[in-house]
Amino acid sequence: MSAPLSLDSSLVRWSVPPAERGDRPVLLLLHGYGSDEHDLFGLVPYLPSEFVVASVRAPLAPPWPMPGASWYPIEGLDGRDPDAVTRAARSVLAWVQDVVGDAPVGLLGFSQGGAVALQTLRADPDAVSFAVVLAGYAAGGELPGDAVLAERRPPVFWGRGAADDVIPAHLIDATAQWLPGHSELSGRVHPGLTHSISQDELDDVRAFLDARLADRAAAG
Q1: 33 exposed, middle or buried (CB, 10 Å; 0-12, 13-18, 19+)?
Q2: How do residues 100-117 score in pLDDT, each as one tens digit?
Q3: Average pLDDT estimate for 77-96
Q4: Cα torsion 90, 96, 101, 103: sign
Q5: pLDDT value at position 77?
Q6: Which of 29, 105, 170, 190 has the greatest number of C-beta atoms within 10 Å?
Q7: pTM beyond cutoff 0.70
Q8: What are phi and psi of 134, to 5 degrees?
Q9: Angle 169-182/145-152 helices, nearest 10 degrees?
């Protein structure tokens, strides 16, 4: 396994200044292929204000002329190497350890970022409280954290569009088989939705995140 790449902390967009963060829970946004830290940051007004939201930029540059950044290379429909997804996940974990500290962390990722969100949860179940996966999938292979997830079943929301033809069908099928045994799964397939995010899906995400805040309050 290659060493994790570094995430550039100077490129992170935060929803609140440092003085207001304290020990509030952090929601880390992981964008999709060819995008950047500005993309998902537009979701902040739709998310619970109790979270400190941090939107990071992926560490790789996709091949020209594709703009933006990427978490791992994509070469054709089957060119999604699980080891490359794990490398990206370990980059996220290293950034969380260096920057976030002891605050509880949840992940919200779109497409590539969704795959990295799940892989980060798999790589270190102790570092991540939950994951929101939008138009993403679970990478193949096995990780040491899988057995822990099967026992703990952390909350995961998986939302996707019925008209999304970007993620290969075999990855969707594999994810649908893997997630129920490794998480407390919720989510929805939205009719007519393509490889994007709808208002209905955002409403589902908001309800999921509100439930996570309620869980935290109940735990004291």
Answers
A1: buried
A2: 988 999 999 999 999 999
A3: 86
A4: negative
A5: 46
A6: 29
A7: yes
A8: -115, 120
A9: 60
Residue type for 22, please?
A: G
**CA gap 129, 121 in Å, rounded:** 8
Helices 82-95 and 112-123 cross at an angle (nearest 10°) of: 70
Q: Under a CB-based contact definition with an 8 Å cutoff, are residues 161 and 190 in contact? A: yes
* Residue linked to tokens 């940051």: 41
Return the beta strands (E) in the chain as ranges: 13-14, 26-30, 52-56, 105-110, 130-134, 155-161, 184-190
* Mean pLDDT, residues 69-76 taken together: 84
82/139 Cα distance (integer angstroms):
5
Q: By CB neighbour count within 10 A (0-12 exposed, 13-18 middle, 19+ buried), where does 179 fall?
A: buried
Closest CA to 53 of 72, 36, 30: 30
Q: What angle do CA 36, 52, 4 make, to 5 degrees?
A: 50
CB atoms within 10 A of CB 79: 10
Q: Are strands 52-56 and 13-14 parallel, antiparallel or unpaired?
A: antiparallel
CATH of domain 9-219: 3.40.50.1820
Query: Mapping DSSP to helix (H, G, I), strand (E, B) and coil, where does residue 29 land?
Result: strand
Residue 93, pLDDT above cutoff 80: yes
